[in-house]
Structures are given as structure tokens and as C-alpha cells.
Amino acid sequence: MFTGQIIEPLCYGLGKIERTARLAEREGFRLEDASFYSDSITDLPLLEVVKVPIVINPDRRLRKIAKKRGWPIEEW
Questions:
Q1: Is 28 strand, coil or helix?
Q2: Does the pTM exceed 0.90?
Q3: Cα dihedral 23/27/32/37 (nearest 10)
Q4: Who's near 50: CB < 8 A, 6+ residues apart?
Q5: Around Cβ 35, how many Cβ atoms within 10 Å?
Q6: In DSSP terms, which residues pair with 38 in a beta bridge?
């Protein structure tokens, strides 16, 4: 239901880690064992936590970091 109310933390930047950690706990897995796909530099904090970071059609800044770190880069 859309109420217009904000539910903290926002699913953005560090807030995405907190929300995903809650999901992982509820579903019985660890972020440190997970894969995560993203196209945006704003997801860098979560990409740095997971076991398998994969970038897809990344923005310029994320592409540069992914290349430097040897992360897989997908182009779709």
C-alpha cells in the first residue's frame, strides 16, 4: 500500500546493506556468501560486502572501480 511515508533506512547506499542484511538473516544466508548485481556506484557499499560482486551495464565510476578490482562486468 502506498502511503507516502518513508520507511527507514532508505534502500540506498549504506541503507541497502542494512535492509539486505535483514533479508539475509530472515532467509538464512550470509551476505558474505552472496552474489549481488548492480549498475550504479550508489551500490558500491553492498558490492564490497558480498562474495561475488557483478556489475551490469555499469555507470562510468562503477565500471572504473570494477575493472580495477577485477569484478565481472556484464553488458546486456
A1: coil
A2: no
A3: -60
A4: 31, 32, 34, 35, 36
A5: 10
A6: 55
Q: How far is Cα 10 from Cα 56, in angstroms, rounded to an integer?
A: 22
End-to-end alpha-carbon separation of the chain, Å? 33
E-strand stretches of the chain? 35-38, 52-56, 73-74
- At 51 the pLDDT is 97
2, 3, 21, 28, 63 from 42: Cα distances, Å: 24, 25, 17, 26, 12
Cell numbers for 66, please give them.
Answer: 570494477
Instruction: Identify residue 64 by its one-letter amino acid code.
Output: K
Amino acid identity at 18: E
Cβ neighbourhood burial of 39 (10 Å; 0-12, 13-18, 19+): middle
d(CA 7, CA 1): 13
Comparing 2 with 47, the larger pLDDT belongs to 47
